[in-house]
Amino acid sequence: MTAQDPFAAFKAVQKEAWSLFTPMEVFTTPSAARLANFAGVAAGQRLLDVGCGTGVVAITAARRGAKVRGLDLSPVLIERAREHAQLMNLDVDFKDGDAESLPYGDNEFDVVLSQFGHMFAPRPDVAIGEMLRVLKPGGTIAFSTWPPHLYVGRMFALIGRHLPPPEGVASPVLWGDPKIVAERLAGKTKDLSFEMDMMTPSALSPQHFRRTMETTIGPLIKLVAQYKDEPDKLKSFRAEFEALISEYFDPGHNVMRQQFLMSKARKV
């Protein structure tokens, strides 16, 4: 992130807000294994995890024998990722950095992955350009994202109505639309494929899950802070949010049903 970056202020807010994401790793750990399986991660591969968060994908890949590096905007989450690697005596190179300016060489990796990470970069063309730049020809790029018409995509749309992003910042959930993924990868990749899967975080009620999300999800943390002196607006937002959660809450099993999209292709 440089002084010339037009989204530097936006990224600074993201860096701070997402620093509280750590408790959610208990839910993203199973889906990390699914992404690694989908990408065909194997021993000996050079692999980069972009927007690695607490390192659940990177650690999963390293455990399989891949030579892994991980990068995230949040130094707090990177420190957590390092702790995970140390617990298993795994050699993973974690560093804080920007998905729009990856500190790696051209054609350096066999596999580039991202689980709900690169999608938050403000400029999709810049982020995917960087991910493909560091990927060698014939290498695999794969990522998990949230479809816009399902729970998480609708949640971000709801947040955006209350807290519009700066001009020029693309909606992260567009990465969950296969048609848009195909357009963004067109001419740069081949053998594009998709797979849907399900995340089932536990919850006691829509209200319980709403509270969890408000203390761990960056944009929600920012929105609640914005409304701290406007209780009526906060109450109205929470009513909308809980109604949305209720559509996907399974009270018979105390879980949320959150479908996500996995996309995979090979660099030409």
Oligomer: single chain
| Anisotropy-based shape | globular
CATH architecture: 3-Layer(aba) Sandwich
- Kindly report the CATH topology: Rossmann fold
What is the spatial order of strands in the main beta sheet? 3-2-1-4-5-9-6
CA-atom Rg in angstroms: 18 Å
How many strands appear in the DSSP assignment? 9
What would you say this structure looks like, in words?
The protein is α/β, with parallel strands linked by helices and 268 residues long. The protein has 10 helices and 9 strands. It has helices at residues 8-17, 25-39, 56-63, 75-87, 124-133, 151-162, 178-185, 206-214, 218-226, 231-248, and strands spanning 46-50, 67-72, 93-96, 109-115, 135-145, 189-199, 249-250, 255-256, 258-267. The strands form 2 sheets. A 7-stranded mixed β-sheet has the order 3-2-1-4-5-9-6, with helices on both faces. Strand 7 (249-250) and strand 8 (255-256) form a beta hairpin. The chain is globular. The mean pLDDT is 96. Residues 48-143 form the Methyltransferase type domain. This is Methyltransferase domain-containing protein. One of its GO terms (molecular function) is S-adenosylmethionine-dependent methyltransferase activity. Pfam families: Methyltransf_11 (PF08241).
Defining traits:
268 residues; alpha/beta; Rossmann fold; 7-stranded mixed beta sheet; two-stranded antiparallel ribbon; 10 helices
Secondary structure layout:
Layout: H1 8-17, H2 25-39, E1 46-50, H3 56-63, E2 67-72, H4 75-87, E3 93-96, E4 109-115, H5 124-133, E5 135-145, H6 151-162, H7 178-185, E6 189-199, H8 206-214, H9 218-226, H10 231-248, E7 249-250, E8 255-256, E9 258-267
Parallel strand pairs: 1-2, 1-4, 2-3, 4-5
Antiparallel strand pairs: 5-9, 6-9, 7-8
GO molecular function, one term: S-adenosylmethionine-dependent methyltransferase activity
Protein name: Methyltransferase domain-containing protein
Keywords: Methyltransferase, Transferase
